[in-house]
Amino acid sequence: MALRVGNKSSPSCAALTVLQQGESAVLHNGDAFSLICTRPDLAIQVHILPAAQGPPADAATREGTAAGYMPAGREGGAAVAAPPGSAPSTSHNSSPERVVAPTTQPSQQSSRHTEASGSYVTGDGDLDGLSDEGADSGRSGGAGPGPGSLASPVSTGKGQRGKRRGPGAGGKDTARGVGNNKPPVQGLPPVLLLFAGLPGSGKSTFSRSLQDASTVSWVHVNQDAINKGKPGKREQCVAALRAALAEGSCCIIDRCHLDASQRATFLELAAECHVAAHCVALAIPAQACAGRVAARTDHPGGVQGDNNRAVVFRMAKQQDSKGWPPTAAEGFTSVMDCFTDSDANAAVRAWAAYGAAAAAGGSGAAAALTTATAVGGSSEGAKPVGAAQGTAEAQAAPTLAMWQAYVAKRKPLAAATAITAFFKPAAAKAAAGATGTGAVPGVKAMAAGKAPAASAATEAGPQQAPAAGGSQVGAARSAPMAGAKAEPGSAVTGARQRGAESPPAAEQRPAKRPATAQPSVGVAPHGGGTGAPAGKGAGSPGSGHAAKPNAVPGSQQSQGNSGGGSASGTGAASPSPGGGANAFAVLMKGSRQAAAAAAGAKPSPTGVARATLGGADVDKRFKLDSPWAQALRKAAQDPEGSQQQVLHKDEEVVMIMDAFPKARSHALVIARDPALRSIADLRAEHLPLLEHMRQVALDWIAKRKEQVPGTAAFKLGFHAVPSMCQLHLHVISQDFDSPALKNKKHWNTFTTEFFRPLDLVLRELEGHGKLTLISEAEEKRFEGQELRCHACGLAQKSIPALKSHIVACDAVKCLPGL
DNA sequence: GTTCTAGAAC
DNA sequence: GTTCTAGAAC
Description:
- The chain contains 26 helices and 18 strands.
- The strands form four sheets. The chain has a six-stranded mixed beta sheet with strand order 5-6-4-7-8-10, sandwiched between helices. Strands 13-14-15-17-16-18 form a six-stranded antiparallel beta sheet, sandwiched between helices. A four-stranded antiparallel beta sheet has the order 3-2-1-9.
- It starts with 10 loop residues before the first helix and ends in a 5-residue tail after the last helix.
- The model is unreliable at 1-68, 70-172, 363-389, 411-475 and 479-614 (pLDDT under 50).
- It folds into three domains: 1-51 and 415-447 and 560-600, no CATH class; 74-147 and 171-355 and 362-380 and 399-412 and 473-535, Rossmann fold, CATH 3.40.50.300; 603-813, HIT family, subunit A (2-Layer Sandwich).
- It is found in: Nucleus.
């Protein structure tokens, strides 16, 4: 089936390419709607889905709030109950596996999982997951507490709002796991819930919240306290879990689990016990985790205090190479990605619902189906997926459905006309094989370089196994039960098997993209790939920016706006089945206008959409009218007249060296459009320009690295509050070795959230149509933050001390970046 | 954005 | 003595 849409460089065209190769893709057309395309059996289906509603993810993490989840039901509790039609679940194959892994959390989590400090090794119980070398180096770093500090007598039960958990009525004293005094529910299959996340990501808090909120028996096993309240061995955890599962209790295994091999241990256990293994990945930004670790005083493993900040940052840098993020392909029935505390809250609520119906005497399976129906769409043309009713997987369906509803709600906006998800439908391979349209080389690579693949599927009929339904952009990713693999040859199995092959290698993921402390949101699964590989040309289809719009306050004007030509109307509308060419027509009809309209942007007389905050206001806020602030504007207009070396010049941009470089290599790519005075003027229509700016920067970086061997990694980004008029992209090496870097503000404007990485700017523009400016309070906070090494996180007392540290810091040499 | 200055803090 | 901060001026 031949469909021609757009041009070769358009994401939609790329999607069609995928379709024609037997793949499926999910397009998100700005704010207006999402387009789901599939061809599981070579019969292309196109569905226009209403734009998901709801506010963007909260800014809790952006603000660096401490862990501590709100009680279940507080934060839109009712809303997550999957209002009919509100969640455009599209499911078709049961296990759309993400092909692409995240970046992200961007930045904070990248690189190899090298050494961990002694505190981490013992404290978080990953002793068996670390090399001796790593452990040793960590210990030598002195970042962690000594063995003596591990003597915290209390296990995971401590701090539970005053309640010391004891053995539950149902025999919760499983080894040394801590139960919640609730009996196992007859007939409710236990599940194993594996947590993964950095120290300080909130794993234990999650456990306590879940144990409190749930009506069924949950046993919390934490290696930090498995040995009579002290850190123990993995084997002890396994034994405790085995016992608890045998008793019918649901179990939580609370370890960092950044390493896939460590997770495998517990997946094997789940298989052995014939229970489903689910994962909750707490991908909270490392900066926030470090802050929590620094502040806490009651960690049983002693991973606490200011000295352990560095532990978090080190682990964050290392986790990619160890198998982060967790994927359903590993064997998890689902993976929930939590990027914010709100996400975690929702996940708690979702898991607290597990077994609720059964506990109340109802039918878990019926509840599952009911919930699934609520979030599912019609099933025209979709084949039912093998339901696993009666299994833990089926029982978990309401949980997953709630999560999917939450994800759909929290992520109303995805990348404008960008492909955000790929998966191979089960039938595609077979069909492709039958018709000779199998995937061609490059498809997987393309997908691997793209944004994080959200769970995507086509239709989730009421008769389907709810747990199998992937959400439109859900962060819950389904996979087969660890202990009950789907039948060979089934649709489910096919998808899963391919999924298992799909996760890109760490080096393929965009983890090396500019790191950032941007703790916003998270919408896209796993932090979303920040897009195409750094070297990818601007013409690459769907630049692949992760569908992870920043959770920025004040950007809710787009909420509820599914218009822009979408025939789907309001968010409550049901997905439009079929659609076919019409859908594509709508897709291509003014997607940009739709996005702009949704973002509330109004075209100016010059055709440039102005910020909601008027131009004059922006200028006043940014102080762009000062005479001294016009240097870059003049350079844009008259590059030759600039005193700075012109590195590049074309009709759209001028690149010059920064007059006061804050690193050995520090240049600016300046937009020449006079209408672009600052980032406040950016709109979705400027995405191509930004891609061009990126490419110009990348080209220069490549040359620079040849000229200056040993140059540190580069990052690209904008200052949240620019001082100089005219939009300019900073291109800066991470050595920060420069006499012009003199004070705290200089440092923090490049190493805190004041620095807005290009990737995140692109993402926000894709998702929201414009950028949300930080408040003056945030501006001051960022500028005034204490000095910390951007690589290891250690605090420094002064700029001279910081500079000395940077020179000696090994972590600087391993910094991710371009 | 910068430099310069003065005073405070270490 | 060194460093930081704030304000003024550019």
